[in-house]
Amino acid sequence: MTTTAYDPWTQPEEPEASPVLRPKALFAGGPVIGLRAAGCTAAGVVRTVSVWLYADPQPGLVAAALWTLDGGPAQVAVTVVGAGTVVPAGLDVDGNPVPAHLDLPVQASGAALPGQAPYRLGIDPAGLAGLGLDLDPLRRYLPVRLRPECGEVPDCITIPPSPPPLTPPDYDTLARDYTGLRAMLVERLGALQPAYDPSPADHTITLLELMAHLGDLLAYRQDRVATEAWLGTARRRASVMRHARLVDFAVPPPISASAFVQVQVAHPDLTATDASFVVLQGDLATDAAADPDKESGAACFTVEVDGPQTVFASHGEVALHDWGEVDAVLPAGATSAVLVRPPASDGTPLATWLAPGALLGFEVVDPGPAGAQATWATRGQNWPPDDGSGAQTRMPLASHPAQVVTLTHVVAMTDPLAPALPLVRVFWDAAEALTAAVPVSVATDAGSPRVGVARLGLVAAHHGLPVDGPDALAAFDPLTGDTPDPAVTEVGDYWLTRAATAGLSCAPGGRPWQVRTRIGLPSGVPVEATRVTSLLRAPSDGFAVVVDLDDDDPPRLRFRTGALGLVPPADSDVTVRYEVGAGAAGAIAANTLTRLVRTTTPLGQPILWLDAGAGVTARNLTPGVGGDEAMGLDVVRRDAPQAYAAVPRRAVLVSDLPPFARTVPGVARAAAHRDWSGSWPVGVVAVETTTDRADPDLDTAVGQVMEAVRMAGTEVVTLPATPVGLLIALTVCLTPSTESATARLRILAALRPGQPGAVFSAEAHTLGSAVYTSAVVAAVAAVPGVDAVRVTEARRLSDPPGQNDSVLLMAPDEIAVCDDDAAAPERGRIELTIEGGR
Q1: Residue 213 lies in a domain
Q2: Which of 129, 187, 415, 563 has the highest count of CB atoms within 10 angstroms of its CB?
Q3: Virtual CA dihedral for 291, 295, 301, 304, nearest 10 degrees?
């Protein structure tokens, strides 16, 4: 039951609030109506839906074209088949008063029975406009069950298996030294010259000890080379990362933390005059009072924007529309909200002031003096009330963490009961649904008063301080360890010295956030070098650089390895601008950052930071999260050798296809078998989805995955899994003291899906798995009060009656089901005969 158009009528409506004040306005009558309640009475194929409004229904509302019933793609379509009737107020058969309402005749297509799940009854706002009526957006739809004679369908719960325990790896080391070599040489000398002089003053012993010493040094170098030559014994991070790269295992470096930062522009005055500021890529949010590069321990977060982003003073704090209620709240799981545009933003087009893709934050603040929040939320004053902190926006309450979402749709709307308020309805993805409720009206329960507000002007930021200048890198020779002079010799390796302690700032994927390398050639022409993950990917023309990380040394900037890469010529000026800051150091608390600074320093010079603009500040709504240290070398040694098998990339056998199908979101289980098309082999994949509804997009996604992993010369066909309904007939004998009705319910609960561990629960049977009647007998026999169990019939619904199989076999694309649901008889049936008991 989803809608595709995002407009003021799109479900779900939020915030939620207890119906108090708005229903009073609707009960008073007038041009605004709303749906109040609905019910259904079953009388054959044509059924009657009774609809109650908040006021007496008008005669024009009986038109069938005004009403819709939506049951979703999995249920039978139902329509209003004729004009309804207005039933005046009266009394029911028990003498209870019944308000005036509408009776609508409805019928399912093809004279079938309606679906068992609730339908959504709705009324068309455009049709009401032709009658001179308006509709409350919060009361456009009502749920109604068209099969009241059917019971509820139980839910199925899937319990994921526990992960297997991890075993620590085993390591072995070898060593050679001077003592062992000397003893071996002395033994050999004794074999060659039995009458040798063992005195240390003998020249033969002196030469022997000198050779043992040289052998010790050589063995040490050989051991170091041999140790770094194998993944299991390598000690240096650079060596371990190169070994892992040979099997396509990416070793993540230290990752920088990230946070959401709000850029605030000071109010120019108390009038409704908006001010703006343009945020640029590379701006820095910090808590340093002076130059952040010269202040030790300063928190620095670099702003991430795709292009210039304009923020307004009115973005600092935006009110949430409470729909006139006193206890409105955005519930946990909300995916939309309604904002009240501040007066200062009236002259700015909505697409400029707030566009899809923008970040929106929810925070809870102190509402301030009594009545001030309501005055501001209804545009009675231009700017938010003062909370006494001296700031132009109210500070959030520490007990309510901020929640940030990315807007997907922005729609202008109006409230018919408050037409003077310019409202904006915003939507975000369900994956970012609110995790905690946000009070829209002033909440006074359970503590001090509080109210939720929206924050705009947000940008993403990551932990990192850009550095540059001569002290940001140092040339070195990897063979001798000396410091060569780039003015007289070619230098292909540089240390990124400023990242030795703070670490290089890297994104979650392992890519450095910024490494800009410029080579000033002897001719005076500047050339940019391309950063690559491996010099194997170096372009054929131009310079390329690789950044190597190690635990004992600063990050290394490398231009060449063997025949790969190009070294800058002698007398070249190499400059690098990069960001430092990684790991847990970026785990700052919320509201730590206070300033927004900017630099215009060109490449190659020490960076000078200045305030980005007058009256412009920055504040991180969320704490720094995601900062992580580099992957441990022991973890790399354990995971890298098996990386190729852990992530398969090709389905060689037909049995390899189901794991790939299960990687598609929405696929619960999959099975495959081999077939023949007449010209080439075909892999037939049966897919069971997590829902009962048909989803063409899911079928397309599975087909694309199968096409990407199939072997050449083969074909893959995906089909939905075939449910096979079973008939299980049991005769159960109870002990004399057992209540038969209670025992029946317990037996059905042990068999029907809906309870963890039930015989026919969704997780009990996979595609192609057989059903053993012994498991049914064991489950029923375990019910308290059961004395004996006998299976009288066990078969498929399609098999002849009277058949009793001890094992019900399934094809690879079939799955056994026995829901015992009268609304879905094709999904199996359980017949119980109870004997004994009381």
Answers
A1: yes
A2: 415
A3: 30
Q: Clarify whether residues 116 and 183 are in a common domain.
A: no
Helix 203-228 and helix 178-192, axial crossing angle in degrees, nearest 10 = 130
**Of 144, 163, 197, which closes a domain?**
144
Tokens 């940001």 sit on residue: 472
Q: Domain containing 830: what range?
A: 722-836
Backbone angles phi, psi at 323, to 5 degrees: 60, 25
Asked whether residue 402 falls in the same domain as residue 476, the answer is: no
Q: What is the CATH number of the domain that holds 685?
A: 3.30.70.1350
User: Element (H or E) spanning 643, and its range?
Assistant: helix 643-646
- Residue pLDDT, tens place only, 579-635: 999 999 999 999 999 999 999 999 989 999 999 999 999 999 999 999 999 999 999
**Does 639 share its domain with 691?**
no
Q: Does a cis peptide bond (omega within 30 degrees of 0) precede residue 12?
A: yes
| Overall domain count for the chain | 7
User: Where does 695-794 have alpha helices with state H?
Assistant: 696-709, 740-751, 773-781
Contacts of 445 (CB under 8 A, 6+ apart): none
- Mean pLDDT of the region 253-280: 92
119-145 burial, b for 16+ CB within 10 Å, e for fewer? bbbbbbbebbeeeebbbbbbbbbbebb
162, part of any domain: no
DSSP string, 76-103: --EEE-S--EEEPSEE-TTS-EE--EEE
C-alpha–C-alpha distance, residues 207 and 216, integer Å: 14
Residue 309, in any domain of the structure: no
Residue 482 amino acid letter: D
Reported as a single tens digit per residue, the pLDDT across 512-558 is 999 999 999 999 899 999 999 888 888 888 899 999 888 888 999 99
Q: Decide the pairing of beta strands 403-415 and 418-428.
A: antiparallel
Query: Domain boundary residue among 614, 647, 680?
Result: 647
* Pair (687, 788) in one structural domain: no
User: What is the number of other CB atoms lying within 10 angstroms of the CB of residue 187?
Assistant: 9
Q: What is the pTM of this model?
A: 0.68
Q: Which helix (H) or strand (E) holds 289?
A: none
**CA–CA distance, 573 with 596 (Å, rounded to integer):** 32
- Please report how the helices 740-751 and 773-781 are oriented relative to each other, as an axis angle in degrees rounded to 10: 140
Residue 517 tokens read as 């390398």
Domain presence at residue 151:
no
On whether the CB atoms of residues 609 and 598 are closer than 8 A, the answer is yes
Alpha-helical regions (H) of 196-311: 203-228, 237-246
For the record, the structure tokens of 771 come out as 């059903």
Whether 410 and 424 have beta carbons less than 8 Å apart is answered as yes
Q: Within this chain, do residues 529 and 484 fall inside the same structural domain, yes or no?
A: yes
Return phi, psi of residue 676, to 5°: -130, 130
Domain match, 37 and 103 both: yes
CATH code, 137? 2.60.40
Q: Which residues contact 181 (CB under 8 A, 6 or more apart)?
A: 211, 212, 215, 216, 219
446 and 474, same structural domain? Answer: no
